[in-house]
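haha ok so turns out i had the wrong file open the whole time. this is the CORRECT one, sorry everyone. sequence first:
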Amino acid sequence: MLSQSALSLRSEKIGWANGILIDTGRQRLSFDPTSGRRLLEDRNVFITHAHSDHTYGFNGPPKKYSTPETLEIHTTLRNRTVTNARTFRIGQSIKFDDCEVVFLNAGHMLGSCQFEIRTSEFTVVYTGDINCVDTLTTKAAEQRPCDYLIIEATYGHPSYVFPRRPTMYADMIRWTITELKNHKIPMFQVYSSGKPQEVVRLFNIYTNIPVVCNSSISRANAVYCKNGVELEYFDATTSEGKKALKAGGCVFVTTARTEHLPRTASRAVATGWALRQAFRSYTSFPLSSHADFEQLIQFVSAVNPKRVYIFTGYTDVLSAEIERRLGIPAGPIPAISQTKLLDFGKISA
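then structure:
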C-alpha cells in the first residue's frame, strides 16, 4: 500500500492541462487532449475513442496511440490521413523506459479503451468515457485494480440512474411501431458513431423494419461491419435508401445535420440527458453510452484505488459520494500550473 507521502507526491505528477497529463519520471504521457495546440513532438499522445471531442490528439506531430478501430472510424468520418500513429488492440500494451501502458476495454463504443499505466512504483487507470453494462454492440468496461483512478463524471449525479437497457429498447420499438401505424417515418437523431450502430442493431435483431442511415453514419457502420458487428441498413444516398424513405415503413437513423429529411418524419433523440432534460418537439429516450451514477460508484468500488481523480461533469458531487460511501479520497483532477507545465515539456535526460 502506498504511503501518504507517496500519495502526495503522485498528486503532483497527475493533472489536467489540455487533457490528462501523467509524468512517470522519464515519460510525459498525454491522454485525450482537448485541442491540438501545445502538443510537443516528443509527447506520447493516447486517444481513448473516436468521438470528435476526444480525437484532437490525432492532429499535429506527436506520436499517437489508439486502437485500430478508433483510428479507422476517425479517418473514415474525417476523410483524412493521420501520421505518426500506432495502433494496439484491447489487451495489448506498449512499453516505454519506465512504464507500460495497457489498452483495456471501456465499453463506450467500438474500439473505445481505458489505459492502465504501470510503473515500478504505482499504477494509474484512466477510464475516458466508460459504459459499465453490456449493449448490443459492446461489452461492459473492464475493471482493473489500481493505485490511482482517473474517471469521468458525465452523469455523476444521483439523479442520473438509467432504466435497464431492455426497458429502453422496448420503449423505442413501441414508439417506432406507433409512428409507423400513423404513417410517419420514425427518425432517431444521434452522433455518427457509437449510439447509431446500437440503434441499427436494435431494429435488426428485434424487428423486421428496414433501417436507413445518413451518409456519415453509414460510413461508420461499414467500419463496425468490418470488425464483426453485423448491421443491416440502407445508405440514404443510394437508390435503395431513397426508395425506402419515399415508400415509408422504415426507420431513419441520422445526425443533427439531417440529410434527405423525410416530409413525414417523426423525430426522436436517444441520449442520457433525456432523463432530466425536456426536448421540445422531440420524443426522447434516455439511452446512453456512458455509465450512470450508480455504475460509476460500483466501478470505483470494484477497482478499489487509493485515490480517485475526477474530470468532466459532476466532479464535486461524485467526489463527495465516493468519499462518503467508499471512504476513498476523491476530488477533481488538479490543473497543472504554467510553471509545472514547463516541466512536462522538457525532454528527459
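The chain has a mean pLDDT of 90.
again sry for the mixup
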